[in-house]
Design a protein that fits this description.
This protein is of the alpha/beta class and 320 residues long. Helices cover 48% and strands 13% of the residues. It has 12 helices and 9 strands. The strands form 2 sheets. A 7-stranded parallel β-sheet has the order 3-2-1-4-6-7-9, sandwiched between helices. A two-stranded parallel sheet has the order 5-8.
Length: 320
């Protein structure tokens, strides 16, 4: 399929206020797209929209929460009323709650599923009728490696991401009669975003991502590449590719849990918090989480090699 020109394309982007969403908004703007930016934080959305204008795109903001069905329906209808069509819809909004499963309040688990799984369903449900009337459209789901590899201490997040992957695959099958309607999935590895600072944290420790940690702009470029040339799936970073293999390796979850345990034991204590689960966080809205360093970047290959060795060792031990 030939690459599509995104100049003046109408793009709806959820979770646009920070992290991958903010980076993705800027990347679409560089291609001249017209953006409808959705998130819960009005002030942050204004900042993103202004930057998009400076980068050569057009942007409007919509304060909306993907965990609310009316917000998603109103978002789609508002864009159609304003722009007349929707070319690309990006289900990007996501949150997480980290901690031992039974120590995370049930309402926090439920909010993760409401956002990460049902938020994607709501977005698709709102936009698909318009796509079908148009006879074309691109739905992009930011699923993450969590859609393939279960993450210990993030049970509801893993459940939601596995479910979103299954939903996207099921929906793609339903749409076989519409060859110009595309359902695309992007699977990023761990990205250096404020998500670790802002998310629900019930571990009692200050969270830091386990390396390798990647620049979120890589995921933004992958999302925009799907809008220009739709494909079923794109993987960002080595661990995302490894997760395809790891799902068939017995004991992967145990190995992963031990790595997380080791990281948490070394972390500084801090109070538990629901973070951004039920409202916008108070911290600065930005793309980067500032977890990367030159030392971490130099250690990426070593960390990946060690993880591969652990997976293979676990598989061999289990086979014996």
């Amino acid at each position: 399929m030939h690459s599509q020109d995104l100049r003046n394309a109408i793009v709806v982007l959820t979770g646009a206020s920070s992290g991958i969403g903010r980076a993705t908004a800027y990347e679409f703007a560089r291609h001249g797209a017209t953006l409808f930016l959705a998130a819960r934080d009005r002030h942050a959305l204004h900042d993103v929209a202004e930057a998009c204008h400076r980068l050569g795109g057009q942007a409007r903001i919509v304060v909306a929460d993907v965990s609310k069905s009316d917000d998603m329906e109103n978002l789609a209808q508002g864009v159609i009323a304003t722009a007349g069509r929707i070319d690309v819809w990006v289900n990007n909004a996501g949150i997480g709650a980290l901690g031992p499963f039974e120590e995370v309040p049930l309402e926090s688990h439920e909010q993760v599923v409401q956002t990460d799984l049902l938020g994607g369903l709501r977005g698709a449900h709102a936009v698909l009728p318009h796509f079908k009337r148009q006879g074309r459209g691109i739905l992009i789901n930011n699923i993450s490696l969590g859609g393939w590899a279960p993450q210990p201490y993030a049970a509801s997040y893993s459940a939601a991401k596995f479910g979103l992957r299954a939903f996207a695959e099921s929906l793609r099958g339903e749409l076989w009669r519409w060859p110009d309607l595309h359902v695309c999935n992007v699977y990023p590895s761990v990205m250096d975003t404020p998500g670790f600072r802002d998310g629900g944290n019930y571990t009692g420790r200050r969270l830091k991502p386990v390396p390798p940690v990647y620049d979120p702009r890589r995921t933004a470029k992958a999302i925009v590449s799907l809008a220009r040339r739709p494909r079923h799936s794109v993987y960002v970073g080595l661990p995302a590719v490894m997760s395809l293999i790891a799902q068939f390796v017995p004991g992967y979850s145990l190995i992963n849990a031990r790595l997380v345990d080791y990281s948490l034991r070394r972390a500084r204590p801090m109070p538990t918090s629901s973070g951004n689960l039920f409202g916008p966080p108070s911290g600065e809205r930005r793309i980067d989480g500032h977890y990367r360093s030159s030392r971490l970047r130099l250690g990426v290959l070593a960390a990946a090699s060690a993880a591969t060795a652990l997976v293979v060792a676990g598989w061999l031990a289990r086979k014996r």
